[in-house]
Write a structure and sequence with these properties.
304 residues, alpha/beta, Rossmann fold, 15% strand, globular
Length: 304
């Protein structure tokens, strides 16, 4: 088989995956749930968590769309070995449809490249926003959850994604600077969401489960005492040499090293987030993709 035939065959297979996701009907009364992944500083493994959490949830039968919304260091494509030709900007400009830019990544998971389109959201007029929301509504029928890999820090864009989402996953490491900056994100979220933020804390690169729990407890205690919010604990992801090896391979960790300890811990985080572990209740249904983008536009400062 020639290289061209192989490439065409792969493209056809990818298209069939997206069509299959779209054809599977959404459950009655169920709205797409949005989850923003935030961190206080860069270098804490936020994007790795986003990618592999998405894969783990997809492995549990959830239909996931992963939006790369990190303006400063968008690298979901690198972690997944993808080469996007188009991104959200092409949809905003009316040059492409959402299905044209989605990149399949295994069963039940597609990546939505954000790129400069994330920045352009803030400059949309009301008519353009309504048009975009209408085009994005296709995600409602093809996905159970929209996971957003945001930028690090308390930049307005990142906090806006957090407040627009149904829930937030806050990633930190045991480093003092990471803990301090994670608390800064919680403070910004609590202010922007008037104390109604649904936040789960995950501690990455910990030396032991006990260290992770200790870090999370300190953050949660301070947030409850001083910010009036009560974050949940999503779990600990231990340091593992498999992580940088997978990055060098440009292959998601769960694909490259599915039996590694860190892959198992990430699946445990996914199960906990889905209510499959520790007798945690399953998350409530989401408010849907249209509501998400309306709230996001308000947070970004919709131009009228």
């Amino acid at each position: 088989m020639s290289e061209v035939e192989t490439r065409n065959g792969d493209q056809a297979k990818d298209l069939r995956r997206i069509v299959d996701m779209q054809r599977r009907p959404a459950r009655a009364g169920y709205g797409l749930r949005s989850l923003a992944v935030l961190s206080g500083k860069g270098g804490v493994g936020k994007s790795n968590i986003s990618v592999n959490l998405s894969l783990a949830m997809a492995g549990r039968g959830k239909r996931i769309v992963l939006l790369d919304a990190d303006l400063g260091m968008a690298n979901v494509d690198l972690l997944c070995g993808l080469s996007p030709k188009f991104n959200l900007a092409h949809v905003i400009r009316g040059e492409k449809e959402v299905l044209d830019i989605l990149l399949p990544l295994g069963e039940n998971l597609s990546v939505l490249p954000g790129g400069p389109g994330v920045r352009e959201l803030a400059d949309l007029g009301e008519d353009a926003l309504l048009s975009l929301i209408d085009s994005m509504s296709v995600l409602e029928g093809m996905a159970d959850m929209l996971i957003i890999d945001t930028g690090a820090g308390i930049h307005r864009n990142s906090i806006s994604f957090g407040t627009a989402s149904d829930a937030v996953l806050l990633v930190t490491t045991p480093e003092p600077t990471s803990i301090r900056d994670a608390y800064g994100v919680l403070k910004a979220l609590a202010f922007a969401a008037a104390g109604k933020a649904d936040v789960t804390v995950v501690v990455n690169m910990a030396a032991s489960p006990e260290e992770g729990e200790d870090v999370a407890d300190r953050i949660r205690s301070a947030a409850s005492q001083f910010l009036g919010i009560s974050p949940s604990f999503g779990g600990t992801v231990l340091w593992d040499d498999a992580v940088p090896l997978a990055v060098r391979k440009r292959t998601p960790l769960l694909t490259a090293y599915p039996d590694s300890g860190v892959s198992q811990s990430l699946r445990a985080v996914a199960d906990r987030m889905l209510g499959l572990e520790d007798a945690r209740e399953a998350p409530s249904s989401g408010r849907g993709v249209k509501s998400f983008f309306f709230r996001l536009a308000r947070g970004l400062g919709l131009r009228r």
